[in-house]
Amino acid sequence: MRVEGHDVAATFANGHTAHGNFLVGADGIGSTTRALLDPATATTYAGYVAWRGLEPESALPDDLLDLLSDRFTFFGANGMQLLCYLVPGPNGELAEGARRVNWVWYVNTAEENLPRLLTGRSGRRYAHFLPPGELTPEITTELLALATDSLPPQLTTLVRLSHVFMQPVLDLSPRRMVADHAVLMGDAAGTVRPHTASGTSKAFGDAAGLASALDGWAPPERLPTRRLEDWEAQRLAHLVTLAAMGMRLASNSSLGTTIGRQFLGA
Question: Which of 109, 159, 177, 260 could form a disulfide with 254 if both were Cys (CB 3.0 to 4.6 A apart)?
C-alpha cells in the first residue's frame, strides 16, 4: 500500500493494483491491511476453541427439531459451553422447515493442540478457521467421543449429524484505526469475544461513524483529519469496553481460565 498525492494504491498478492481516494481495511482478524499499518499488533489465543455447525432444519430428525425449535438451548459445564438457536435460511427464509439450526460449542483446549486441530484432511494448515469438510477422521472421532462423554444425548446427536467447522477464539487488543488515507474497521481493528454477540454490530457502528466522518469530503480537499481522529477515539473506547465485557463473560463460564478443565489434548 502506498499513498500517491491525494490517492492511495493497494497491490494484491496476484499483482493487481487498485487505486482510489481512501482505503478501508475490513479484512478480518487476519488482516493484511493491519499488518501493513501496525505490524507490531498480533493476535493472542484465548485458551478455547469454538466448534460450530449450521444445518438446514430439513437435515435433522423431527424429535431433535422439537427440542431445539423456537427456543435458545444452552448447556454449560466446567471448561465448555454449548449454545444452539435457529437462524434464517441462506436466502433469509423464515418459514418453518426452511431455517437453519446454528450451534456453537466452546471447549477449553491448550494452545499446543492448535496445530493438530487446525490441520485439515487436505493437509492444509489453517490459521483462523477450519472450514466444513476439513475435519480429519482422527479429530472427528475425538470430538464425537468428547460429545458422548460430556453433552446430553440430544446435543451429541446434533454434533454427529453436522458438518462441523472450527474457529479458535482469539484476542486482538485495539491500538489504532486511522492512518494516512486508510483506516481499519471491524475485526481488522480489534476483536471481541463471541459471547458479546456484537461482532457484526460493532463493524456496522464502525462503518456508520466512518461515513459520517468522511461526509462531504472529496479530493483534492485535505482529509478531515480531526473528524477521523474523533471517530477513532470513540470507536476504540467502545471496542475496549466490549472486549473487557467478553473476557468477563468467558471467565464466568470457566472458558480460557486456568481453573477450567482442558479437553482434546494430543
Answer: 260
pLDDT in tens, 107-117: 999 999 999 99
Q: What is the dihedral of CA 117, 118, 120, 125, to 10 degrees?
A: -140
Return mean pLDDT, the chain.
94
Mapping DSSP to helix (H, G, I), strand (E, B) and coil, where does residue 244 land? helix
Residues 176 and 45 sit within 8 Å (Cβ to Cβ): no
* Residues forming beta bridges with residue 108, ordered by sequence position: 48
Cα–Cα dist 3/11, whole Å: 12
Q: How many CB atoms lie within 10 A of CB 14?
A: 5
Quick one: which of 97, 101, 98 has its CA closest to 52? 101
- Rounded CA separation 25/32 (Å): 8
d(CA 138, CA 131) in angstroms, rounded, equals: 16
DSSP letter for 183, please. E
Strand partners, 214: none
CA distances from 227 to 7, 79, 130, 209 (A): 19, 44, 39, 10
Pairing, β 178-179 against β 73-77: unpaired
Please give the Cα distance from 78 to 204 (Å, whole number).
34
Q: Summarize pLDDT for 70-99 with one digit per residue, the tens.
A: 899 999 999 999 999 999 999 999 999 999
What's the chain's Rg over C-alpha atoms? 21
Look up residue 177 and give its amino acid.
Answer: M
Q: Grid coordinates representing 48?
A: 478455547
pTM for the complete prediction? 0.91
